[in-house]
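Students often ask why we bother predicting the structure of a whole assembly rather than each chain alone. The short answer is interfaces. A chain on its own may look different once its partners are present, and contacts between molecules only exist in the joint model. In this exercise we take two input lines together and write out one structure for the complete complex. Read the inputs first and try to guess which parts will touch.
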Amino acid sequence: MVQSKKQKYLFLAFCLLPTFLVFCIFTVYPMLGGIYYSFFDWSGTSSVKEFIGLDNYQRIFHDAVIPKAILNDYFFVFIKLIGIMLLALFFAVALTQLKIKEAPFYRIVFFFPNIMSVVVIGILWQFIYDPNIGVVNGVLRSIGLEEWARPWLGDMTWALPSVAIPAIWAGIGLFMLLLMGGITNIPKSLYEAAHIDGASEWQQFWKITVPLIWPQIKTSIIYIVITSLNGSFVLVQVMTSGGPGMATEVMGSYLYQKAFEDFQFGYGAAIGVLILVISLVTVVVLQFILKKEKVEY
Amino acid sequence: MKNVKSLSGIAVRIPLLLWSFMVIFPLIWMFIGALKTNAEIFTSPWSLPATLNFKNFVVAWTDYNIGRAFLNSLFVTFLGTVLTLAFSIPTAYALERLRFKGNEILLNTYLASMMIPSVLGWIPLFFLLLKFNLLDNLWALSLVYAVSHIPFTIFILISFMGNVPKELEEAAAIDGMSPFGILFKIVTPLIVSGIVTSSILNAIAFWNEYFMALILLQADSKNTLGIAMDLLKTSAQYESAWGVLFAGLSIAVIPVIIFYSIFQRHIVKGMTEGAIK
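Now the answer. The structure tokens for the assembled complex follow.
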């Protein structure tokens, strides 16, 4: 190749520098800034920004809301993992292997919630749970289970699961597509051979399908966990703002309320650092649990 | 034997149909609610409207600022998507094809940043934009959106660039084409399907984004659809203007559904062939 060194470096700089610059300004700096702010007592106006060391972190340990919020975060993680993985896996297998003629219809429809805004999803489900005109109570009343009807999102016990259901509802489509991608790439001959050897469909599922789409399953699990820990507060904030009481409070919604509603930016930043630590630790542990040799036939 | 087959066919379809119903029902309810008057919604929440009533759409669009928010969302979605590509294509190319010191580290930095909870950065981001007088600025919001999706887009584009034959680039270089020419005239046209896939997903995410807009925008005239919906919900609660609220939600959802129906093949294709393995 006839190419001067100068030209090569110029091109490399063109490719990398502008992107890296905006990445540093809008992603790296805010992250480091978040850690930095967590050591200050700060109401947002620069005159009263006081360095207080680890006081915010001490306060976190004594804040009764924090353990509750962490517990709720993990409740979302587990219920989403189970709900999404079971349904997405079932739908993915059904739509790829059971020769259903109208499969494209289901594939398209199941992805609808993934293209909708969390705000729209939250508002729609608020109506579904509405005590008076909501569908859930309407159905319960019409089948004679009057006493089960309740203000779902205002109920201390039922609010949390009630918010988790739309979270599952909104998540299925994406992971179904991901798993379908894995299943379509499995060679048909494996199933034919297994069929000849007399393996039942259930055995085929466990011995062929699951091991061969393990990378996709693993990606899905990690992705669900990360997005849930880092993002389930959006739905919470839209649907209940953490209420009733603290029944549905999660770390993210608590951060938002502390920082942008109570103007305790230092404390909010410390909560943000805690979210970071929790999600990193969770991912590392998860990687360890999911470690399994890649299977190739 | 045949009976057993058709029986299991029905058994499998029951959950599929049930879930389809669960997905479609809220949407249908929303569209129907948008065409009803408030009185109709209260007296018979599940019935069809007596007459088709498009007034709710007009009221939502003009009186509740949805029209303005619609245009703002269109603006940030378009600008954000274009900026994401402008930043991601050259970097993805350099990371995939050019050899330089720190290649691996840079790639891993971008990928690792996808794991970081963005909520951690929102407080400093807010004050950064405040300092440069960029709060309430749709251009700045588009840029923030774009940067937040650079790692994901690089990730997708790299996997598509890996399939471009190296010989094409070598031949072009021998013919005296500059590296800029090779990137924009040879490689970019060959990864169109990766560009389309990532841009569809980016555009949908930007159109639907709510929280960063909530923090970084303040004036009513700058609101995007997510915030406008939230405000509409609050005032609908006071005024019991449910029909208008449903109309507002429909205005936010219909464009994405149309957009998705046109491009859904690309999403499925990108998901199953290239990107995530």
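Check your guess against this: The two ends of chain B are 38 Å apart (CA to CA).
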